[in-house]
Design brief:
Elements (H helix, E strand, L loop, with lengths): L1 H6 L3 H16 L9 H12 L16 H13 L5 H10 L5 H8 L10 H7 L18 H4 L8 H18 L8 H20 L7 H17 L7 H7 L11 H14 L2 H9 L16 H14 L7 H9 L4 H15 L2 H19 L12 H12 L9 H5 L12
Helix pairs in contact: 4-5, 5-6, 9-10, 10-11, 10-13, 11-13, 11-14, 13-14, 13-19, 15-16, 15-17, 17-18, 17-19
């Protein structure tokens, strides 16, 4: 029992056990069977080399075959092959009888820590490798410190209900479609955000993303709005009393087009925008600067740039709000394919977003930096690389890879 237990241990544990046993014997606190004492003596003889040259193995005797065998014995605890090691050492010229007899003796007890194995292997001894503890991978919503107000299942159920309402309320002839159509685009983006944040896998995500691009094209180029007064005011650019609702739908459509790689569709969406588009308030918020940015992006993507865009871009560079200026700098670096400038500007913009603009609200789209995400997709289109960002900043950028679109 004692030998079997010790054979499964390594040298430090063995020495600890032997010291404890020897102490107990010396203090006469324990009486051992006669069979145990030879085992203890054998272990001591195996662990403690003799003094002087009797414990040495010449370097020339450490042939590759001898080292390989010693390594195998050590790793597999196959000590019955110690006599084979003696043969290889002797064939290589070893004449040290103490070494050879220790390997061949039927009375010898061998364990890891055997002085002959240590002498043969030297620096070849494979030290046990302590595996690093597995790092718990946090999902992006956890990195951002956000949790859904509803369960994941309930959230997906609500999105499915939104899609069903979209299908029903945008049938030909139905009035007041504009709000429902824009809301559906928001739902498509929300599915991408959910997947990115780690709430996936989202069933039929590809259909949501590709369907969102199709819905955005229909939003701007369909004729669904012609028979309803309110819808016409929102989409008819020829009306003098128009109150065009383009900004949110265009940004959702561009983000979805970028995530799916449908850049031709993105260019078509931007072709709807022309130089007559007036800047408009959304929910009475003063966000002109963001609309300037979106018009600049649209101008760059459409077949022909917008008239007066240079003046708008200069105004954006000098605008008072910090975040639109930072976004503009990142976008200009992406267009110029300047990797160094892009890395710096994107990092500054995301940092500002997280510290000033991110909101802990039920709508998860406000947790992530969607403007920065779109600008990254434009940079990726121009063959720039995604910059190394701190964990939280990285978690705030929605990318093709984080929604399962790698081709």
């Amino acid at each position: 029992m004692l030998t079997g237990s010790l054979l499964s241990q390594d040298l430090p544990q063995i020495v600890k056990v032997l010291n404890s046993v020897c102490t107990m014997i010396s203090l006469r606190r324990v009486s051992l069977p006669e069979t145990v004492m030879p085992q203890l003596r054998g272990l001591v003889d195996d662990l403690l080399p003799p003094e002087g040259d009797d414990a040495l193995v010449d370097a020339g005797c450490r042939t590759p075959a001898a080292v390989d065998l010693a390594q195998s014995i050590y790793q597999e605890r196959d000590f019955q092959r110690m006599p084979e090691l003696a043969e290889l050492l002797e064939e290589a010229g070893c004449s040290n009888r103490t070494v050879l007899d220790h390997c061949r003796s039927s009375d010898s007890v061998h364990i890891r820590g055997c002085w002959v194995l240590d002498e043969v292997l030297g620096e070849f001894i494979a030290k046990p490798v302590r595996k690093a503890p597995k790092r718990r991978v946090r999902k992006r919503h956890q990195i951002l410190g956000r949790e859904l107000h509803e369960t994941r299942e309930k959230t997906l159920e609500l999105l499915a209900q939104d899609e069903a309402k979209y299908r029903e309320r945008t049938k030909p002839g139905r009035p007041n479609q504009q709000f429902r159509r824009e809301l559906y685009l928001d739902s498509c983006v929300a599915c991408a955000v959910l997947e990115h944040l780690g709430y996936g896998p989202i069933e039929n995500l590809a259909s949501w993303l590709d369907g969102g691009v199709t819905a955005a094209l229909d939003y701007f180029f369909g004729d669904w709005w012609e028979d309803d007064e309110e819808d016409a005011i929102a989409l008819d650019k020829s009306r003098p009393d128009r109150e065009l609702q383009w900004n949110g739908a265009l940004m959702s459509g561009l983000l979805l087009a970028g995530l799916t790689g449908h850049w031709d569709d993105a260019a078509k969406l931007c072709s709807w925008v022309d130089s007559s588009i007036q800047l408009e308030h959304r929910f009475e918020l003063d966000d002109y600067e963001y609309q300037w940015l979106h018009l600049c992006i649209a101008s760059e993507l459409r077949p022909e740039p917008l008239e007066g865009i240079d003046e708008m871009l200069e105004a954006l560079r000098q605008c008072r709000p910090k975040h639109p200026r930072m976004l503009c700098a990142a976008w200009e670096a992406a267009v110029a394919k300047d990797q160094k400038a892009f890395d710096k500007a994107l990092k500054e913009s995301v940092h500002n977003f997280l510290n000033v603009h991110a909101q802990n609200v039920p709508n998860m789209c406000f947790w992530v930096a969607l403007d920065e995400s779109l600008i990254w997709l434009l940079a990726e289109r121009n063959n720039l690389e995604f910059p190394a960002l701190p964990e939280k900043m990285d978690a705030a950028i929605v990318r093709r890879q984080t929604v399962g679109r790698t081709n």
